[in-house]
């Protein structure tokens, strides 16, 4: 029985979905905090904070250049979980708001219409001076300058680092306020404000469900938690 049926939702109910690195793991992208994850290889202070970028921009550019090249490897493709969410968006009569902490583009490539990238996007760069955002599929360096402001500003990855304000928070808060189902997929529930969304949705009366390989740090705040790989659980959700 698909999980959605068992939740006795109406087809016009509103759904908010939050995804994390776990939904892209079976596509071949590393997670952050699983064994051997990204943060076990490099100190987030050095590569995912404004201080780290100010201290050593070349190191930070190398970190994101490596991940960008990895994401652009043809072997990296959306998986059945990304596809199932895109199908849910197309088939559901109510609103579906997909919020992702991920900076990969696998939701878009699977067909999701408008994923909200609250932590930014690996395939975008932003000007440190005029904040113009451009596509970025090549390596970035301190020598890359912004064309929009006549080369006066340097480019950085369009990624939200620790201590920076996540993108699209107004849209996210509005969606959390009137959602009937909050679905969290493939996140450890470690990073805020994303980790606090389940409490906000629950306080607004939503049913909250976690689909994750292991119980997250916030598992006790969910009405239901189902463990397993995303490519098994998510398609079953919407079958
Ligand atoms: C903010 C960059 C204010 C992009 C990331 C002191 C000073 C300043 C801030 C703070 C502070 N103390 C706390 C904070 C808040 C801080 C924070 O949360 N820190 C943590 C360390 C405690 N947050 C911030 O600074 C944020 N900004 O608070 O501004 C504000 C707040 C509200 C409104 C306005 C202003 C900014 C946070 C963004 C930081 N940037 N990364 C990049 O390089 O990618 S966060 C980083 O962690 C990634 O972006 C990632 O998206 C995110 C969350 O990780 P997960 O996606 O959950 O991945 P993880 O590996 O942890 O877990 C994977 C899960 O998947 C596991 O549970 C695993 O079991 C599961 N899994 C694995 N395989 C599968 C699977 N599940 C299913 N199937 C599988 N196959």
From TrEMBL:
User: Which EC class, in a word?
Assistant: transferase
Show the catalytic activity: N(6)-succinyl-L-lysyl-[protein] + NAD(+) + H2O = 2''-O-succinyl-ADP-D-ribose + nicotinamide + L-lysyl-[protein]; N(6)-acetyl-L-lysyl-[protein] + NAD(+) + H2O = 2''-O-acetyl-ADP-D-ribose + nicotinamide + L-lysyl-[protein]
Q: Which residues bind NAD(+)?
A: 101-104, 186-188, 212-214, 230
UniProt-annotated catalytic positions: 119
The catalytic activity of this protein is classed by the Enzyme Commission as 2.3.1.286
Enumerate the residues binding substrate. Answer: 64, 67
Question: Which Gene Ontology molecular-function terms are recorded?
Answer: histone deacetylase activity, NAD-dependent; NAD+ binding; protein-malonyllysine demalonylase activity; protein-succinyllysine desuccinylase activity; zinc ion binding
**Which domain of life does the UniProt lineage start with?**
Bacteria
Q: Which GO terms describe its cellular component?
A: cytoplasm
Question: What Pfam families does its record include?
Answer: SIR2 (PF02146)
Q: Where is the Deacetylase sirtuin-type domain?
A: 1-239
Q: List ligand-binding residues for Zn(2+).
A: 127, 130, 146, 149
Cofactor: binding details: Binds 1 zinc ion per subunit.
**Where would you find this protein in the cell?**
Cytoplasm
Q: Which cofactor is recorded for it?
A: Zn(2+)
What keywords are annotated for this sequence in UniProt? Cytoplasm, Metal-binding, NAD, Transferase, Zinc
UniProt similarity note: Belongs to the sirtuin family. Class III subfamily.
Xref: PANTHER family: NAD-DEPENDENT PROTEIN DEACYLASE (PTHR11085:SF4), NAD-DEPENDENT PROTEIN DEACYLASE SIRTUIN-5, MITOCHONDRIAL-RELATED (PTHR11085)
Function comment = NAD-dependent lysine deacetylase and desuccinylase that specifically removes acetyl and succinyl groups on target proteins. Modulates the activities of several proteins which are inactive in their acylated form.
Q: What is known of its domains?
A: 2 residues (Tyr-64 and Arg-67) present in a large hydrophobic pocket are probably involved in substrate specificity. They are important for desuccinylation activity, but dispensable for deacetylation activity.
Q: What is this protein called?
A: NAD-dependent protein deacylase
Q: Which organism is it from?
A: Azospirillum griseum
Q: Which gene encodes it?
A: cobB
């Amino acid at each position: 029985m698909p999980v959605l049926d068992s939740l006795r939702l109406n087809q016009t109910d509103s759904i908010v979905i939050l995804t994390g690195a776990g939904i892209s793991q079976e596509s071949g992208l590393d997670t952050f905090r699983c064994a051997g994850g990204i943060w076990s290889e490099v100190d987030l202070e050095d590569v995912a904070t404004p201080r780290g970028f100010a201290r050593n921009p070349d190191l930070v550019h190398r970190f994101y250049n490596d991940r960008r090249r990895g994401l652009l490897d043809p072997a990296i493709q959306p998986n059945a979980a990304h596809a199932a969410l895109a199908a849910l968006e197309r088939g559901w009569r109510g609103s579906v708001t997909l919020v992702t902490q991920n900076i990969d583009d696998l939701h878009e490539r699977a067909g999701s219409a408008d994923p909200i990238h609250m932590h930014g996007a690996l395939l975008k760069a932003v000007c440190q001076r005029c904040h113009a955002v451009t596509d970025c599929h090549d390596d970035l360096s301190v020598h890359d300058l912004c064309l929009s402001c006549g080369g006066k500003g340097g480019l950085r990855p369009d990624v939200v680092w620790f201590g920076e304000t996540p993108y699209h928070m107004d849209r996210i808060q509005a969606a959390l306020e009137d959602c009937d189902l909050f679905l969290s997929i493939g996140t450890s529930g470690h990073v805020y404000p994303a980790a606090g969304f389940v409490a906000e949705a629950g306080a607004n009366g939503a049913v909250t469900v976690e689909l994750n390989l292991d119980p997250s740090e916030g598992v006790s705040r969910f009405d239901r938690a189902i463990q397993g790989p995303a490519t098994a659980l998510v398609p079953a959700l919407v079958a």
